[in-house]
Amino acid sequence: MEGLQGKDEEKHTSGGTSSDTVCCPECGSTQVIEDAARGERICAGCGLVLSDHRIDTGAEWRVFSHEEAEARSRVGAPMRYTIHDKGLSTVIDWRDRDTSGRKLTPTRRSEIYRLRKWQIRSRVHGSIDRNLAQAMSELERLASQLSIPSSIRELAALLYRKSIIKKLVRGRSIEAMVAATLYAACRIRQKPRPLDEIADASRVDKKKLGQCYRLLLRSLRIKIPLSNPIDYIPRFASELSLSSPVQLRTIEILKRSREMGLTIGRDPLGLAAAAIYVASILLDERRTQREIAEVARVTEVTVRNRYKEIVRVLNIDSQGGFGQGHQ
DNA sequence: AAGACGAAAGTGGTTGA
DNA sequence: TCAACAACTTTCGTCTT
Fold first, then answer.
1. C5 C1' – A118 CA distance, angstroms?
2. A269 CA, C9 C1': Å apart
3. Could you identify which of A69, A84, A139, A300 might form a hypothetical disulfide with A132, taking C-beta atoms 3.0 to 4.6 angstroms apart as the criterion?
4. Per-residue pLDDT tens for A2-50?
């Protein structure tokens, strides 16, 4: 059981990050040819086989429509990281009937009863599994409360598995670690949520959450770039029910702000909020500083400060245009 | 009266000795 | 490990719409 888990993690580590920048030990070339048919990777420089027996995870047939893709799916349920046993274990039904629906004989029945008991024990009693089972239900709760899509949940679950293997959870609360992985997953997928929002939804305080998050980045060696204010815009705009022109203008403002060096060292949330504020005024869909500050989870003061800087540096006048040119 | 503005003091995190 | 520091928050009084 333990062995299997380890292997799976490895396989998926390289999958998402595309960190395949191997160089050939013979000639140092970084050009690699993938020979999917043979399952080999070959150096383009000298022809050395770098690795073989790769598993082709793709389909071995082509499909031409969605229905066809559905129909040709491989057997079984998809493997999922949010289920603590990855959805792969066999479940013994609680009904005392066999596959054809007949009632079981008393001896057979007690046998099944025993099997069922041991199955449950073995599933939930390993310390890792028990932890995971608890963590996954917490993850599910947290994610659905924040309405985070399942693809991000899966990523969070994967991160959590890794952190268990690295023994990061020991001595820390499961909740805090789960929240941290979820926060990280959101940022990796460029759908960042404010730290406060996740802290509020879980019972973890912001400080602990931040600590766990940083630990996660350090020990799992993941690099997550600073969150981009633009990533917040669609969500904030919809919460403020602002039209899409306002969103576009906001993004434009943010891009220009970045060019002008306004963004360095600044809280992305504050920037996003201020840019929305400016755009909402320019396009006559005014929202108050308070409203915007609330959805962005910063204070009005911060919105004001960023707003003043944006207006000053980008030469925006009250007429609605950008003052092009002279700075 | 609500919103916007600005000053001043407080807070938590980062940096460099 | 500690102090300095920048960014942000809290609080509050004043001005504007």
1. 60
2. 14
3. A84
4. 333 433 333 333 333 333 445 566 566 666 666 666 666 666 666 666 6
Same CATH topology for A1-75 and A229-320: the answer is: no
CATH number of A81-225: 1.10.472.10
Written as six digits, the tokens of A285 are: 């869909």
Evaluate if residue A143 carries a pLDDT over 60.
Answer: yes
Whether the pLDDT of residue A185 is over 90: the answer is yes
Closest residue (CA to C1') to nucleotide B12 in the complex: A207
What does pTM read for this prediction?
0.70
Which bases of strand C sit closer than 7 A to a protein CB? Answer: 6-11
Name the closest residue (CA) to the C1' of nucleotide C11: A301
| Domain covering A1-75, topology | N-terminal domain of TfIIb (2.20.25)
Instruction: List chain A domain ranges.
Output: 1-75, 81-225, 229-320
| Distance, CA of A133 to C1' of C9, in Å | 39
Fold entry, domain A229-320: Cyclin A; domain 1 (1.10.472)
Nucleotide nearest to A292 (CA to C1'): B3
Q: Distance from residue A206 (CA) to nucleotide C6 (C1'), in Å?
A: 20
Mean pLDDT of A153-170: 91
Segment A90-118, tens digit of pLDDT: 666 667 777 777 777 778 777 777 777 77
Q: Tell me how crowded residue A264 is: count the other CB atoms within 10 A of its CB.
A: 7
Q: Which nucleotides of B are covered by protein (CB under 7 A)?
A: 2-8, 12-14
